[in-house]
Design goal:
By secondary structure, this protein is an alpha+beta fold. It is about 50% helix and about 15% strand.
């Protein structure tokens, strides 16, 4: 934040110095040898002014890029917070499946609190749904109001293990922040797992 402000200050200072120097030369044309020198100085002043403007624009662009990067980082932190809550529930889903021989279909099956009681800085609910899927819902701090991520279990009989897929229809950039998750373009028929 300080570097962009310092850059703007320096650009402004240079522009003022150039303008002041140009004013001093222009107000006393009798000191200049020829009109060509005056024109050359005017051109130099214009060039310096253009360079100062270009430098200021570059500093502004870098500031905007830094702000976007900060927002991306914050959105990622909020998504990870919810995924950490979901990771704890994965164990409960797996234990239920191996003991009952079927997937849980609700928080109640796992003796968990109501979905809305799982909340954090951006997470607004954590709900166990059809086939043991864990649905994480976020608020606007995540970058998408009402955005969801689903953790979907798949039992592999060949290995006797459960593999989890992380899928979202809300966060197109998910792979850059949470590489184990995938973005899917929403289909007209809706989600893989019904919302309710």
């Amino acid at each position: 934040m300080i570097k962009p402000l310092l850059g703007r200050f320096l650009v402004t200072l240079i522009a003022v110095a150039v303008a002041f120097a140009g004013y001093e030369y222009y107000k006393r044309p009798q000191d200049l040898e020829t009109q060509a020198q005056t024109d050359a100085l005017r051109q130099q002043a214009r060039t310096l002014g253009e360079q100062a403007t270009a430098l200021r624009d570059e500093v502004d662009r870098q500031h905007r890029d830094a702000e976007r990067e900060k927002q991306r980082y914050m959105h990622a932190a909020y998504l990870v917070e919810g995924l950490q809550a979901g990771a704890a529930i994965k164990t409960a889903v797996a234990e239920y499946f191996f003991s009952a021989g079927a997937w849980p279909t609700s928080n109640r099956d796992l003796e968990l609190a109501e979905a809305e009681q799982f909340n954090g800085q951006s997470l607004t609910s954590l709900r166990v749904s059809t086939n043991g899927a864990i649905i994480l819902t976020y608020d606007q701090l995540s970058g998408v109001t009402g955005g969801t991520i689903q953790l979907i279990p798949e039992y592999r009989p060949s290995t006797g293990a459960i593999k989890w897929r992380c899928v979202t229809w809300s966060y197109w950039h998910i792979a850059t922040t949470v590489p184990q998750c995938e973005y899917r373009v929403p289909e007209p028929r809706g989600l893989l797992i019904p919302a309710d």
